[in-house]
Amino acid sequence: MDPVTRRCDSHTVALPDVSPPRHNGMQQLDPVIWFFVLGVVAGAARADLRLPAAIYEFVSTVLLLAIGLKGGVELARDSGGLPLAELGGILLLGFVLPLPAFWIARHLGRLERADAASLAAHYGSVSVGTFAVVIGYLATRGIAFEARAPVWVVLLEVPAILVGIVLARGLSGDVAWRHLLRELFLGRSIVLLLGGLAIGWLAGPQGTESIEPLFFDLFKGILALFLLEMGLIAAAQLPTLRRHGLFIVLYGIAVPLLFAVAGAGLGRLLDLSLGGTTVLATLAASASYIAAPAAIRTAVPEANPALSLTAALAVTFPFNIVIGIPLYERLALALAG
Amino acid sequence: MEQFPRRLLTVVTEAVLERELVAELEALGVRGHTITDARGRGSRGRRQSDWAQDGNIRIEVVCEPALAERVAARLRERYYDHYAMILFMQDVNVLRPDKF
Fold first, then answer.
1. What would the CATH number be for the domain defined by B4-92?
2. Cα–Cα dist A222/A202, whole Å
3. C or N terminus of chain A, fewer CB within 10 Å?
């Protein structure tokens, strides 16, 4: 077995420890974050740098499977099962979060109903990329978290998108629900996370040894490539950011902070570990930039797609991975008292 | 060599619509289509094909002129208001009329 995998108790897991935490200035930042910065800088300067679409797909596929597999292996080690009250609470969070996100956009931002609903769907839902970064962050620090955390991602991804569509359309609206639900539940992230969980759980720690080199040992390197591409994509949103201005920036920072408090509070209430509370706070703070944009584009076509996508990608994602995650860890620590 | 006149319908639009449009085409009775990733610039700004989320696609259909008109009318009615979409037609000749 991987000698650096730590297990603090039977429910928790940390990914391989890559380097000891350092606290001297710039080195404190996880090296993978610098790849994101490189992507943003190169993109903004219009450097000749572009990962082919197929590489992005591959890299994100490996990340999703690795996250699922790791969780599944740990669940197989410990047959404690899934606590239903906790999962129910987190599912409920997914339905509730879009409501304040909508209200703030509609009343404080004075946005059109469709645009406010679109923002609500994006900010109520979650970003798997941000989840991968918080997992890497906790692993580097040797902080354990619940093995079932990938299940939280699955629970939080879809509800907010449904609420967002209902906020825009009403319950009776002309939405092709059957088609939409199919697209949402068979989306890449859900299929790969659950598939990885199932394979990890079925194969167990011994069974997955043969695929460890790709999925576990290379995790941070793959994450670095993913973040490089995310930086390039975020930089491509900068012209839109300039057009929509201050509101998007304020919204994209204030709403995550607010939601992180809600997520951390729920984590505390559910008696999650310090790492688990940090993960849940980060998930609540994160905004979807894959599942939500695609679903909203087809179900609420009159919403401006650039508005929500730019807020999620160019403001909230960078804010969360650079400033947010360390902040949410401190918040979880403070709540743990 | 005998040639048969048909209409080539080209649609450039948002990649997010791909599945929905393929279903529309089939429902209207189109027998085949070709889809390629596309990028370019238009009234809705620069669109790149390197990220599926905001990429463009180009759909090409060769069919009877009447069917091409029906497809064009349907797409205009349903998608022009809210999506980035352009559509144009050309007369083409084919060698195997039973395919189109």
1. 3.30.70.120
2. 24
3. C
Closest chain B CA to residue A51: B50
With CA atoms as reference, report the closest residue to A63 among A157, A164, A134, A158: A134
Contact with chain A for residue B41, Cβ under 8 A: no
B91 touches chain A (CB under 8 A): no
Query: Residue A15 region, left (φ>0) first, then alpha (ψ -120 to 50), else beta?
Result: beta
Dump strand ranges (E) for chain A.
Answer: 12-13, 145-146
Of all helices (H) and strands (E), which one includes residue A126? none
A24 within a domain of the structure (yes/no) = no
A229 within domain boundaries: yes
A182 interface with B at CB cutoff 8 Å: no
What's the total number of domains in chain A? 1
User: Residue A290: which of B14, B20, B53 has the nearest Cβ?
Assistant: B53
List chain A pLDDT tens, one digit each, 337 residues. Answer: 444 444 444 445 555 555 544 455 555 678 899 999 999 999 999 998 888 878 888 999 999 999 999 989 988 887 666 788 999 999 999 999 999 999 999 999 999 999 999 999 999 999 999 999 999 999 999 999 998 999 999 999 999 999 999 999 887 667 778 888 888 888 888 899 999 999 999 999 999 999 999 999 999 999 999 999 999 988 988 888 888 778 999 999 999 999 999 999 999 999 999 999 999 999 999 999 888 988 898 889 889 888 998 999 999 999 999 999 999 999 999 998 7
| Of A270, A267, A249, residue with least CA distance to A328 | A267
State the residue range of the domain holding A176. 51-336
> Is the CB of residue B55 less than 8 Å away from at least one CB of chain A?
yes
Tell me which chain A residue has its CA closest to the CA of residue B14.
Answer: A297
| ipTM given for this complex | 0.72
- Provide the token pair at A51: 């990962």
Helices first, then strands: H and E counts in chain B: 2, 6
Residue A78 neighbours by CB distance under 10 Å: 15
Instruction: Look at B49 and A290 and tell me if their CB atoms are within 8 Å.
Output: no
